[in-house]
Each structure stands twice: as structure tokens, then as C-alpha cells.
Amino acid sequence: MSKAKIIAKKSVQSVMNELQLLSQLKHNFIINMQAAFQDRDNLYLVMDLLTGGDLRYHLCKQRKFNEEQTKFFVVCIILSLEYLHVNGILHRDVKPENLVFDDKGYLKLTDMGIARQWKPENAQDTSGTPGYMAPEVMCRQNHGVGVDYYALGVIVYECIMGKRPYVGKSRQEIRDQVIAKQVQIKNNDIPTGWSLEAVDFANKLIQRKPANRLGVNGPDEVKAHQWFKDYAWDKLLDRQITAPYIPRDDEMIQIANENRRDSANEIDPESVLSLRRNSIQAQFGGYTFNGSNNNNNNAKPQSTNVSVPAILSTKAN
Predict the structure, then answer these.
(1) Where in the sequence is the signal peptide annotated (predicted)?
(2) Is 150 helix (H, G, I), strand (E, B) or coil?
(3) Which of 65, 50, 56, 108 is nearest to 237 (CA)?
(4) What CA dihedral angle connects 271, 272, 276 and 277, to 10 degrees?
(5) How confident is the model at residue 63 (pLDDT cuts 50, 70, 90)?
(6) Which residues pair with 99 in a beta bridge?
(7) Residue 301's pLDDT band (boundaries 50, 70, 90)?
């Protein structure tokens, strides 16, 4: 990562925050950091190799996924969120672009740039992606784990219906739609091949009011939903289930070639020159990590309940 680009985008805090969080985490369904180092011009982040492309890429190709495939994706996401929430972290930007396939078809949650350790007064933390951002974030209210489950609900809705529940050209347009009405999938709109349980799960996650949203009381109530009856959670956590959708080899080659293309945006010359100043370099102080010293190797959460009750979603009206 170019330091000059990071400075030009005013993203130093985000980059340093991501390093700090990733240094504490290790799980089968989040992207794990192996090493981090820097020189005068660049930051280097060594991560798990994920060659399957992101969920957005595959949604655009497939338009929709079937119920079996979607359930597998959702379980991967729930397990990643459970792990983060147990550790007191809100991801805050769960979306298809931040869910990447490995070569076995398992999804991993990536991009911790705007993830945060939860704090009780967080109404001003309004970062996120319109369309996946929970109403309480858009309306500048204190929030908890429910924001990540709302985003999961949008993804499930998108896999079922082929579109998001609320669409618009701006955050304001989407906010106005959310305020105007509660979108739900009606029984007569359920596509062929989808169960009532899957639709009920999506509908309960995209509730506008946090108090009504599935997940407000933590991950156990999400995992206990009827859609997951008799699901082998532990087997999937241990990667003992064959994924129902695996990116093809030719797709992985295409994705790799696209990722090699230089975005080629002009770097601001002033930002490049600023790297000569010690005060600028000091902003990247401590950007280093050696994964071999990371002893946090337990892929399973410390408990089945969110360890800090206060992190649970604010039960606002």
C-alpha cells in the first residue's frame, strides 16, 4: 500500500486501526494477518491467500444463489461475526465486497478498516456502506452487534431476491426509503426453490427497529433460528463440509489477473514529498507484525454468548 495514497485519502487512522485489530484476531472465517512491515514509501500486509474472488463478483455473475449455497455462506458469516462480537468488535462494513472465497468455497470476512472496539457512546460513528448500513447508524443512534446482523440480512435478501431491500443513488435516498417503510419478502413473492424459513430469517434480520431485529440478544438466537435446524455448525467451523459452490479455476485466474492491474490513479506529488518528513513517517510508527509470535490460534469463540452484554444492540424504537 502506497503511503502517499494513504495520506492523500486521509486513511492513516483506518490503516493503523486495521493492523491493531488483525494483530489480535485469528479465525477460520476472517482473513488472518501473517505479517506486516514497511519501508519509506509503502506498507506491506501479508494476509491469507484468498483466490476465489469476492461475493459481489460472483453475485454479478450468478445473479442469485440457491438456498443451499446461501445457507452455507451465511453460516460462514455468522461464525465470523460471532467471533468478532465475542471479542467486543463491531465490523460495521459487512457487504459482499468484503466477503471473499478461498479455493475451497469457504467465505472469509475481510477489511477491518472501519471495524471498532465497541463503546457505549458511538452515535457519531456513522461509517459504512449505504444499502448495508443499519438504520440506527444512518440516524446517528448508539448501536451494537445488530448493525452487523442487519447487513447480513441485506445480503441474504439479495441472494434470495437478486436485489437489495433498499436501493438509491445516495445515503440520503436510501435513508428516506428506510424511514418510509419496512421492506419484507411476502409469501407470494418467494422465488421457486426457497423455503419459508429462509425468508423468515431474512425478514427478521432486516427489521428497521433494533429491538425487533434477530441478533439483538447475541449470536445464539441467530443460530437457533428454524432455518438452521440440525445444521452441523461445528463441522463447518472445522471446515469438514464440502462447500456447495466453489469458484472455478478459470474464474480464479481471471480474478488474479484483474487484481494485478494497477489502479494507476495519479499519486498526489505533495503527498509523495511529505514522506520525507519525520513527522509524517511517525504516523506509521509501529506498523509491524510477525505472525509467528501470534499465539491466538483458537478458531472457536471464547464462549457462545457475547462476553460484554452492553455490546448488544441498543433497543431503540
Answers:
(1) none
(2) helix
(3) 108
(4) 10
(5) confident
(6) 109
(7) very low
In Å, how far are 111, 273, 284 from 38, measured between CA atoms?
A: 19, 17, 9
How is 9-48 classified by DSSP, letter by letter? TT-HHHHHHHHHHHTT---TTBPPEEEEEE-SSBEEEEE-
pLDDT reading at 295 higher than 60 = no
The least confident of 149-163, 195-209, 252-266 is 252-266
Q: What digits encode the pLDDT tens for the residues 47-62?
A: 999 989 999 999 998 8
Task: State the helix-helix crossing angle for 146-161 and 196-205, rounded to 10 degrees.
Answer: 140
- φ, ψ (nearest 5 deg) of residue 316: -85, 160
pLDDT at 169: 86
Active-site amino acid positions: 93
Q: What is the reported pLDDT for 41?
A: 87
DSSP 3-state of 208: coil
Query: How far is residue 252's CA from residue 209's CA, in Å, rounded to a whole number?
Result: 40
Q: Is 224 exposed, middle or buried (0-12, 13-18, 19+ CB in 10 A)?
A: exposed
C-alpha cell at 278: 519525520
Taking the C-alpha atoms of residue 128 and residue 93, their distance in angstroms, rounded to an integer, is 5
Spell out the residues 6+ positions from residue 32 whose beta carbon is closer than 8 angstroms to its own. Answer: 22, 25, 26, 47, 48, 291
pLDDT score of 262:
44
Task: Please give the model's pTM, rounded to 2 decimal places.
Answer: 0.86
CA distance 91 to 81: 8
The CA distance from 243 to 238, in Å, is: 12
C-alpha cell at 317: 424504537
Question: Which residues does 237 contact at the CB level (< 8 Å), separation at least 6?
Answer: 28, 29, 79, 299, 300
Alpha-carbon Rg for the chain in angstroms: 20
- Per-residue pLDDT band for 283 (boundaries 50, 70, 90) equals confident
Give the whole-angstrom CA distance, residue 11 versus residue 17: 10
